[in-house]
């Protein structure tokens, strides 16, 4: 009985052991499946989180032989030629202004010397008139003497004629006395002629002196409407008018030159400002060397900062690896195609890429590492 019982319970125990092993394996497989599902779900959540938090950018490379860069180089050459022309024009205007200033200074000095020249001429005329007046007084005295001498000799000639009739004098003596009377008359008439000429000259000098004195003070007046102006005064007046017209013309030319100088200076400053702005543009940099860029829509521009890492992913989602960093945000708005082919407003960023293959990708991703360079509050980001 005992032996039969032992034989009959042995298969049952073996079956229980096998059931326990099968149940344990199922539990391990179930747990492994659960862990796999949880891990897959966590990985999917992680991918989804990174997909919505990473910034998506569209890469491109600008090189010196790019069509837009070549066009910019040609435009820059034109701008530099125009700038050189403006600098040359400014140099010419400065030289012109110096010449105009010197000419005005010389003419003003000549105009101020005109009054002194008139005063000197008036003084000279007055002095000459004074000398002529003294000569006229001398001639007046000489005339009185000659008139007395002529009267005495005429009276003596009458006596000689009477004595000749009485036989007291000879005819030769009468003839000699008659010749003396004629000589006295000739001297008297010559004296009167010189005195008349001297008085006429004296009157002219006095009028000239008065006119020059008035002209030196700028108050030239004619005695009557049709009275002629002395030639000397007319010449000085003509010189004065010519000098005033020349000064007025030069001042007008100076104002025009100053206006052209201001316009050229403003254009040159605007051109320099434009060139400084162009020097910050990627196209300008690309004239010297290859430049790696990426277009970033404003929405994604707020998600990263400077020095953040750039990632290249398979199918834009899986197996992401670091290929570079963001080194600069280029100021100025750009309208271009976003990573999905739609036109968007945004800005360019400069990249430092370690793998050239990243430039051929349609989309790259930038992941913010919490650095202080975040653009979340950056002035370059638009106000929303």
What would your notes on this structure say?
With 384 residues, the chain is α+β, with helices and mostly antiparallel strands. It has three domains: 1-53; 76-248, Helix Hairpins (Orthogonal Bundle); 290-367, no CATH class. 66% of the residues lie in helices and 14% in strands. It is built from six helices and seven strands, in the order αβααααβαβββββ. It has helices spanning 2-53, 67-166, 171-216, 231-279, 282-285, 298-301, and strands at residues 55-62, 291-297, 309-314, 318-329, 334-337, 343-353, 364-367. Strands 1-2-6-4-3-7 form a six-stranded antiparallel β-barrel. Strand 5 and strand 6 (343-353) form a beta hairpin. Helix 3 (171-216) runs parallel beside helix 4 (231-279). The longest helix is centred in the N-terminal third of the chain and has 100 residues, at 67-166.
What is the CA-CA span between the terminal residues?
Answer: 94 Å
Main beta sheet: 6 strands, antiparallel, barrel
| Low-pLDDT stretches | 1-9, 220-227, 371-384
pLDDT average, as an integer?
76
Share of helical residues: 55-70%
CATH class categorisation of the largest domain: Mainly Alpha
Count of separate structural domains: 3
Which series of helices and strands comes N to C? HEHHHHEHEEEEE
């Amino acid at each position: 009985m005992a032996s039969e019982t032992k034989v009959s319970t042995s298969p049952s125990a073996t079956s229980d052991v096998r059931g326990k092993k099968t149940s344990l394996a199922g539990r391990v497989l179930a747990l492994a499946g659960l862990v796999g599902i949880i891990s897959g779900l966590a990985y999917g959540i992680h991918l989804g989180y990174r997909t919505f938090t990473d910034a998506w950018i569209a890469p491109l490379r600008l090189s010196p032989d790019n069509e837009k860069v070549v066009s910019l180089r040609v435009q820059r050459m034109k701008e530099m030629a125009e700038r050189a022309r403006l600098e040359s024009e400014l140099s010419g205007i400065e030289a012109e202004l110096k010449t105009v200033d010197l000419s005005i200074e010389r003419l003003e000095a000549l105009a101020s010397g005109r009054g002194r020249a008139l005063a000197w001429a008036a003084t000279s005329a007055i002095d000459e008139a004074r000398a002529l007046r003294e000569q006229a007084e001398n001639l007046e005295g000489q005339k009185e003497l000659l008139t007395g001498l002529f009267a005495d000799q005429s009276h003596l000639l009458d006596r000689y004629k009477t004595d000749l009739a009485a036989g007291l004098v000879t005819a030769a003596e009468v003839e000699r006395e008659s010749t003396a009377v004629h000589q006295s008359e000739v001297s008297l008439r010559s004296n009167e002629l010189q005195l008349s000429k001297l008085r006429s000259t004296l009157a002219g000098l006095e009028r000239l002196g008065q006119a020059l004195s008035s002209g030196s003070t700028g108050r030239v007046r004619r005695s009557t409407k049709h009275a002629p102006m002395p030639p000397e005064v007319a010449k000085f007046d003509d010189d004065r008018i010519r000098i005033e017209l020349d000064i007025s013309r030069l001042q007008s030319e100076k104002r025009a030159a100053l206006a052209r100088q201001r316009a050229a200076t403003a254009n040159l400053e605007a051109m320099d400002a434009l060139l400084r702005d162009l020097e910050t543009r990627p196209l300008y940099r690309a004239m010297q060397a290859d430049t790696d860029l990426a277009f970033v829509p404003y929405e994604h521009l707020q998600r990263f900062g400077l020095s953040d890492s750039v990632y290249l992913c398979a199918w834009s989602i899986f197996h992401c690896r670091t290929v570079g960093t963001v080194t600069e945000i280029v100021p100025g708005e750009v309208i271009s195609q976003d990573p999905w082919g739609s036109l968007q407003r945004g800005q360019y960023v400069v990249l430092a890429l370690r793998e050239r293959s990243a430039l051929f990708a349609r989309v790259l991703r930038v992941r913010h590492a919490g650095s202080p360079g975040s653009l979340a509050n950056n002035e370059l980001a638009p106000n929303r």
